[in-house]
Amino acid sequence: MDLEILGRALSTLPADDDHPYRTGPWRPQTTEHRADDLEIIGDLPTDLDGVYIRNTENPVHPAQQGRYHPFDGDGMVHVVGFRDGKAFYRNRFVRTDGFVAEQEAGRALWAGIAENPVKSERTDGWGARGRMKDGSSTDVTVHNGVALTSFWQCGDLYRVDPMSLETLGKAEWGGDFPSNLGVSAHPKVDHRTGEMLFFNYGTDAPYMHYGVVDSSDKLVHYTDIELPGPRLPHDMAFTENYSILNDCPLFWLPEALAAGKYVSRFHPDLPMRLGVLPRRGGGNEIMWFDAAPTYVLHWTNAYEDGEEIVLEGFHQETPEPEDTGDGSLYQRMFRFLALDRMGTHLHRWRLNLRTGGVTEERLSERITEFGMISPAHTGVPHRYTYAATGLPGWFLFDGLVKHDSLTGVEERYPLGEGVFGSETVMAPRIGSAGEDDGYLVTMTVDMNRDLSECLVFDAQRLADGPVTRIRLPERVSSGTHSTWASGAEIPGWRTADRPEDAVGL
Ligand SMILES: [Fe+2]
Q1: Could you report the per-residue pLDDT of 445-465, keeping only the tens digit for each?
Q2: Cα–Cα distance list, 6 to 33, 34, 347 (Å)
Q3: What separation in Å is there between the alpha carbon of 411 and the centre of ligand 1?
Q4: 206-251 confidence digits (pLDDT tens)
């Protein structure tokens, strides 16, 4: 392995830290690495060609008021690239305005999500709540050959080189980026059209907007979506002709909000409203459907089936888990992050465009979340979903599941005690001839051996275990979302000697 240290960030975290989301599998990193020619155990398929990029929440300072929540962490992105039968790795902080300001100050300047915004040292900020730092640590997607990192509420999109991970600045969309509200965590790329679809939300009417960015990075559509009040949507879906937005009955209590307090509550007496509008339609064209009350953090896909829109995602049995008094203080405080406490199940909604009716069905009795499908099937029918199982009580993934929606059969790969994975992507192999003709790629945190690996599975034989293990230079932190981009999507991919030499960005 050819290893170089690219940089080190200042960390003021205490040596005796006991916060479970800043220690153990969530131990943040401060060092940035360049590693080429990584050691490969097993056979690295030569038809695996592209990059696996993963975002992590990587704090470097104690929380301003002592109540750190993992969503407050600074974004650190990791990339494992596969090219010509070799693998490379980079990890870099996203140089957000907030990260740079706090590096200069040597301390946290903004209140975290579990802290009092009135006491925030900096009174500016990002997010629908405001007075928060945009850590850009939630999702990462690739659009027009550039990786974009995002914030879990609404914030800027940071442009990151998908090979070197250097921060290139913020998305501007020719000056039309909606900087007053930002963009929500999960903008969606349609690989067929090259478009990116997104929404944002805030505390002022109309409370939501929806937009489309085209394949030349221009904002070509932006419309008001009127909601009954401030909401906290996280994700959206799309089909060939429609976008699907949501108004889930989990939102800030209006009376508390009027007093400047942000208290989110589930309202089991209200339906989950699903809004379907033409991809370039105005907000007045949206058609709302009422489904049974729940909160959906992540959708896996949507597609059209005759007069119906089929929507799949993770239904929560208990969007607001009770504090039963069991477990440690931290386990009780972060019960909202544990898949078993929320009871997340793969679920299907059918929205009938003619009758306005909704039918629902649970697709799996297993508790999973963070599901991915083949990128070739977004917006059109799919058969396979690849999702994570969770360690009970914690925000940690202890295994992978491949769900076959045609047969209902599930194939599982447990990572083993003390080993945790990340959101797992499906990477079609070059010349892929079927939906699962490719590889599953994930990144582990192995607490037994104090290291991290990138694992590659044959997507048709998940239960057989990884075909390739690639050791990373340092144990990474557990984290959030990831993405796959094929080499064909990345400028300079074929011609650059090293990722830093890529041209075109
Ligand atoms: Fe998310």
Answers
A1: 999 999 999 999 999 999 999
A2: 5, 6, 44
A3: 24
A4: 999 999 999 999 999 999 999 999 999 999 999 999 999 999 999 9
Ligand 1 centroid to 4 CA: how many Å? Answer: 32
Distance 91 CA to ligand 1 centre (A): 21
| pLDDT, position 190 | 97
* CA distance linking residue 83 with residue 9, whole number of Å: 29
| Burial of 162 (C-beta count, 10 Å sphere; 0-12/13-18/19+) | buried
Inter-residue contact 73 to 108 (CB < 8 Å): no
Please report which helix (H) or strand (E) contains residue 414, including its range. Answer: strand 410-414
Instruction: Supply the pLDDT for residue 55.
Output: 98
Q: How far apart are alpha carbons 250 and 247 in whole angstroms? A: 8
d(CA 81, CA 104): 32
419/388 Cα distance (integer angstroms): 13
The SS3 of residue 473 is: coil
Q: Which residue has the tokens 């993405």?
A: 483
Query: Cβ atoms within 10 A of the Cβ of 176, count?
Result: 14
Distance CA 411, CA 440 (A): 13
Backbone angles phi, psi at 489, to 5 degrees: -85, -10
Mean pLDDT of 246-272: 94
- Kindly give the distance from the C-alpha atom of residue 35 to the centroid of ligand 1, in angstroms, as a whole number: 28
Q: C-alpha angle with apex 126: 122 to 127, nearest 5 degrees?
A: 130
Nearest to 152 by CA among 131, 136, 167: 136
Mind giving me the DSSP string for 266-293? E-TTSPEEEEEEETT--GGG-EEEEE-S
Distance of alpha carbon 252 from alpha carbon 129, whole angstroms: 10
Count of Cβ atoms closer than 10 Å to residue 267 Cβ: 14
Give me ligand 1 centre to Cα 200, in Å.
14
